[in-house]
Amino acid sequence: METSDPGNSWQAAVRELPAVDHLLRQPALVKLSEDYPRGEVVRVVRLVLDERRAALRRGEAVATDVPSLALAVRQRLYERSRPHLRKVINATGIVLHTGLGRAPLAEEAIDALVQTASRYNNLEIDLATGRRGSRQDHLRDLLRELTGAEDALVVNNNAAATFLVLNTLAAGRDVVISRGQLVEIGGSYRLPEIMAAAQCRMVEVGTTNRTRITDYERALGENTSVLLRVHTSNFRLRGFTESASLEELVALARRHNLLVVDDLGSGLLTDEWPWPAESVPPAIAGGDGHGARPGPPSATNPRNWDEPTVRGSVAAGADLTLFSGDKLLGGPQAGVIVGRADLIAAVRKNPLARAVRPGKLTFAALEATLRLYRDPGAAVLRIPVFRMLARTPAELEGAARALAQEISDRVPEAEVGVTADHSEAGGGSLPTLPFPTYVVRVRFPRLDAEKAAAELRQRDVPIICRVHDEALVFDPRTLEGDESAQIAAALAEVALEQQAAPPGANAGVNR
What we know:
Helix 18 packs parallel to helix 20. The chain is of the alpha/beta class. The radius of gyration is 28 Å and the shape is globular. The chain has 20 helices and 16 strands. Residues about 280-295 and about 505-510 have low confidence and may be disordered. The longest helix is centred in the first third of the chain and has 20 residues, at about 40-55. It starts with 9 loop residues before the first helix and ends in an 11-residue tail after the last helix.
């Protein structure tokens, strides 16, 4: 019954709610007990009844009949059974989308995860001797080979790598850094606060836009331990700027018996990729609100990126080089420290090293990802980050037009168009470099774009897109497999729900 009759008191309505046992005996719920544990069904029945009881006390008009309650129980059971962390479709064109988990893993890394997670493994057993080993041994030789460094250590993210290195090498000592490199990144990570937590003293030199090697030299004192260079991953300074090169820092450190730590952040291992041929896209009219237009096609080739490489840092003489595993490296979340063997040994002995060590799954996925770098030609196709960044405008235009046609076929009432635009690397990487692309723009005649985007996020497989100029914007750069077909099907569902909704109401959220 509906308790909309003002003559009914809430007490009477509450008394009419069925008992838990009575509701559990209904055929619809008996069937649910075959699909879900009985304890879970009982728990949800009580939860739904409690919610209805509370709503009635507040004077709200809610359904209390058995069919409506059974439907609510079924919906709640379904919601509780779904993982909270689950797959989404990334249609934003942002390849390293921090909110969406950054780098998707290569198939080889996924296979390694499954193999390692499903059975026991030799995480800390030396198979040659049968004695206790180190989990770091699984990656040490591979990282030496790929970076040219003497030794390596893996921790759970690059922030941990920065903290651990500074705490080991510079606690109670001075660390000299350019004022223009005192970055803040996502999650309120501020480098000065990390340095303070590591118990070292930060010495700022230069100005925001110009720091010369002489600025570093004037700041040196008896308590100086480290010259720290931090790559400004998520922003760039342009115009009247100057900075000391890594080679200059290394030369200065050698003259004064100091250490150079190079924090690269996003972790581009190398820029020597067999990049596909590129073509010039048509000029963009409008863009997506970022205010940037695609640069020359050659700018999207890694050799022209303004991103330092790990190999370059090691070759230039940095004592330790730090970088992330889940950004431009294309692997799982991790922080990697490579460099001098004696310094790596000291960092490894820090008691906090155990607190930030990764688990077996990180080592498995990272090893599988790094192995792909032995064949750059295959890696650019196998590592999803590079496969997506390497997609040409011609390929993306074809994908966008195919998606637009599929949407038009499924949702004929929608306004659908294809325009030139740009994608972003994301994840604090290559912030000023637009990657030419083509996008599909969709407008519903009677549904606000923001509400339509919200509806797409409520699908069984949520779809994340951009919204600009009252249109849904889908970038095929970050779509793979049958995801385009899933987008078209989801838009058709949204359109049907909108048509079925009563005037003035939005479509429901039953998926």
